[in-house]
Design a protein that fits this description.
2 strands; single chain; Small CPxCG-related zinc finger protein; 3 helices; binds zinc ion; alpha+beta
Length: about 60
């Protein structure tokens, strides 16, 4: 793996994923829609877990 991953920032608070530990980086939540991929850091994902669950398609339950 010689290529560096694309920079990822939390859409909500702007946290830089590359500064997280490996364990924290794995806890990030991504959501892909027509406009692209949106990332939430673990903290914001927890804060918005209800919103995220509310948007999940039914087959995901
Ligand atoms: Zn965040």
């Amino acid at each position: 793996m010689s290529e560096r991953p694309e920079p990822i920032n939390c859409e909500h608070c702007g946290r830089d994923r590359s500064t997280d530990t490996d364990v924290d980086a794995l806890a990030w939540a991504s959501d892909t829609d027509a406009t692209g991929t949106h990332w939430l850091c673990p903290q914001c994902a927890r804060d918005h877990v209800r919103d995220i669950e509310g948007k999940l398609p039914r087959e995901y339950w």
